[in-house]
Amino acid sequence: MKKRNCFIGQSGGPTTAINASLAGIIAECIDTQQFAHVYGMINGVKGLLENKYMDLLEIFKSTEDLNHLKHSPAMYLGSCRYKLPEFQEDPQTYQLLFQLFNELEITDFYYIGGNDSMDTVAKLSTYAKTIDSHIRFIGIPKTIDNDLMGTDHTPGFGSAAKYVATSMLEIAYDSSIYKLNAVTIVEIMGRNAGWLTAASALARTAYSDAPDLIYLPEVPFSKKAFLEDIHEVFKKKRSVIIAVSEGIRNENGEFLDSDSKYAKRDAFGHILHSGTGKVLESMVYQEFKCKVRSIELNVLQRCAMHIASAVDLDESFEIGRYAVKTSMAGETSVMMVFNRTSNNPYTIECDFKDVTSIANLEQRIPVEWINEGHNDITQDLYNYLYPLIQGEIAITYENGVPQYANINHLKND
């Protein structure tokens, strides 16, 4: 029987777990013994259009190799921020891609990424149908924002949530040592969905109740209520710690940092919020005249392998494996998803859904999981988040620092 050949790509922002999904795909391709070539796109579809790819079976030949990849952060294959045009508007782009697919006798196409990456999978699979191509197009989710529709949660989120919770606990310790009034504002990623900021509540222990206040983009932000909330906390303690999503909006739906000098847009037109913490810092200082600092976790929360969630990495690996099984079963134009089958004990199963019904939609926190005061989360949301950050991994160190996969192939020409 003629063997299969596949392409794997990674796209969008990096995470701690995206290489685990890549490792899962490679592992399953090897185990089936039905793949002659497993090609990796260098820098996603954008790199593929420039004929940049590598044969991963020549590099990863053992379980040890794959475990090393699984425990390496960011994106081994590199990424891109490329918006694939509609094929009616730019048929040449599609013709170029499918010409390469035909030359390499590609049977399966796996793309690991977030919302915009699922849009790419949807467009390629739709075009494939118009030309009667039999290539199977499969999307594998990843995003620290946890905002992809159709899945209980996304690979990469659990590890980022664990980093946020750990950082919040350490900030609480740092802030507890002085006998003076102080406010610490921690700005956390989340353009429209506050899942990561909500995860800061996982830092609370029997001896630390930080964060004292949590503000999410799913509900309107009120300056007046915000300052009143801080006044109330000051009645009980001298140090106030606040978690805030970068994308919070006022009652008029305007981003708090819209007029900030830091406001920028990415390749897809999304506002890159950076400055919300500073806006709030100034606001708090004017009101309380106390020590105020804002901390922006920024990209640090994306690829912190040293504090990765074992649950996240294991699930990410398995969803990669299941993606191969799904395409080999004849499915196409789907995104792999997690279905939570039990919360206590926590169990999930892998499944898939039509990618065209998922792409370009956002999963936000249900309003009923946010408290009435709009300054904290409910127990239901805590119970949803808690299982996703469980377990630790063992990292290999060399010369005192983690030893990750070699990415020399991503260096500039």
TrEMBL record:
Major subcellular site: cytoplasm
Record-stated family: Belongs to the phosphofructokinase type A (PFKA) family. PPi-dependent PFK group II subfamily. Clade 'B2' sub-subfamily.
Subcellular location: Cytoplasm
Positions of the record's site feature: Important for catalytic activity and substrate specificity: 116
GO MF annotation list: 6-phosphofructokinase activity; diphosphate-fructose-6-phosphate 1-phosphotransferase activity; metal ion binding
A GO cellular-component term linked to this record: cytoplasm
EC number(s) reported in the record: 2.7.1.90
Phosphofructokinase domain: residues covered: 7-303
Protein name: Pyrophosphate--fructose 6-phosphate 1-phosphotransferase
Subunit structure: Homodimer.
Cofactor: Mg(2+)
Chain positions recorded as diphosphate binding sites: 13
Positions with a binding annotation for Mg(2+): 115
Regulation acting on activity, per entry: Non-allosteric.
Catalytic activity: beta-D-fructose 6-phosphate + diphosphate = beta-D-fructose 1,6-bisphosphate + phosphate + H(+)
Functional description taken from the UniProt entry: Catalyzes the phosphorylation of D-fructose 6-phosphate, the first committing step of glycolysis. Uses inorganic phosphate (PPi) as phosphoryl donor instead of ATP like common ATP-dependent phosphofructokinases (ATP-PFKs), which renders the reaction reversible, and can thus function both in glycolysis and gluconeogenesis. Consistently, PPi-PFK can replace the enzymes of both the forward (ATP-PFK) and reverse (fructose-bisphosphatase (FBPase)) reactions.
Pathway(s) the chain acts in: Carbohydrate degradation; glycolysis; D-glyceraldehyde 3-phosphate and glycerone phosphate from D-glucose: step 3/4
Keywords: Cytoplasm, Glycolysis, Kinase, Magnesium, Metal-binding, Transferase
InterPro entries: ATP_PFK, PFKA, Phosphofructokinase_dom, PKF_sf, PPi-PFK
Any GO BP annotation: fructose 6-phosphate metabolic process
Active site: residue positions: 145 (proton acceptor)
Binding site for substrate: 143-145, 189-191, 246
Native organism: Coprobacillus cateniformis
Residues of the site described as Important for catalytic activity: 142
